[in-house]
Amino acid sequence: MKEVIEYILAFLVILSVLPIYNYVMTNLYTPPQLEVEESVLATFSDQVVNLLEEQAIYGNLTSPLIDLKTLIENKFPYITKDYMFNIKIVSAGIQKTIVKGNCLKVYTIYKGNVSAFVLYEDHTYYSASTTKPSQILDNGTYIYTVFLNKAIKVVFAMIILDTGTYRFINYYHDQNIKKVYIGNYNGKFAIITDQNLAYYNLPGDKQGVDLIIISYSNGKFHIQSNKVVFGDIEDIYNFNLTPVDKIPVVPPIIDYIYEFKYRVDYNNNHISYYAINDAVLSVNGINYKILNGVVLNYQSIDTIEYLYYIRVRKLFGIPISSEVIDKSTKLINQTYLRSDYSYIYAPIYNLPLSILEDANGNKYIGIWYPRELTIGYTPPSSLPTRSVTLIRRLGSVDYYITITLWRKTT
Q1: Residue 15: what pLDDT?
Q2: What strands, in cross-sheet order, belong to the sheet with 372-376?
């Protein structure tokens, strides 16, 4: 009888321990074969960061033509055949940017030089910088105030924080801003878009859109856009002086308003930036138009009409004073003499932004560097993972890069 009781008690003890054992094995115990070795993560991280640096220089972090997940799997099959990965990059030095009245409020975790490039609703743009925070919060956050030159709506802003050691990037954009991709195509700087653009007809039977290139160096933005170098005057003609109004002032003083216009033919040299239509590529069922960035140097005869409104004050019909009260110029005609296209080649890693304007006046924004990006798969909650966070410069921007690995189970 005693032995029976001992067996029953032993059985009860086993039953009471089983739930604890199951919990430990299910939730707390990691079988050795599922652990991710530190050496594997270190090797993978070094190789992935090198690959991301190369892709950033060529503008492929934002390009839809490059599948970075597939590229990583193909580049490092000796790791990805046994492991899955998640890579998150964030240029985290700037926390947020708020448009408030005629200024930008930029929140950062570091002190440094804050530079901002702003595109307004009227399609004009402006850049400014500041080095002194206007406020420091109790949690150590720095607030920089960048004052703008217009009190109108901001539709896009790019902000760069340069600490001297690190460089971070952030963006503000209106939800209706039109976006395109920029990157590398066959070694050339390219605009990539699935949108329908209205093209200009350009010399050499080409079609394209206006291109503005904004680069960054030494704490400032540098803007490359169209420029005209006026040359020799070929002819001046069509002089026309027409009375348009007569305004009594104080008798016998009368103001006479005249319209005076004439035309001038100039032999001009032009330097213009365009993105010209080159190819169409289909990626995952989406047709992307590829427009190559070019510099167009051309010579032309430009007919410019000058228009002046002149007020002549007369006393008893005799002029006593005159002044120009309004003036304007207008391109009447352009005759191309010669043209020469030069492609813009990648890499141009200090070029963070481009602006396009099509023939309908629509503006499009293309960014070279994302503020944040996630590559790979969603980390599992039921498997052991191993992560590492690094800060590295990709191209000309610094990112916090978090790389997570876990073993495949099938």
Answers
A1: 47
A2: 372-376, 83-90, 397-407, 386-394
The conformation of residue 140, written as its DSSP 8-state character, comes to: S
Q: pTM of the predicted model, to two decimals?
A: 0.79
Q: 97-151 pLDDT, tens per residue?
A: 999 889 999 999 999 999 999 999 998 999 999 999 999 999 999 999 999 998 8
The residue extents of the domains of the chain are 31-91+371-407, 178-368
Average pLDDT on 178-189 reads 90
Return the CATH number of the domain spanning residue range 31-91+371-407.
3.30.1140
Write the CB contacts of 106 (distance below 8 Å, at least 6 apart in sequence): 94, 97, 114, 116, 143, 144, 145, 146, 159, 161, 170
Cβ neighbours around 312 below 10 Å, total: 15
Q: Are 23 and 382 in contact (CB under 8 A)?
A: no
Q: In Å, what is the CA distance from 323 to each residue of 255, 257, 308?
A: 11, 10, 10
| C-beta atoms surrounding 149 within 10 Å | 12
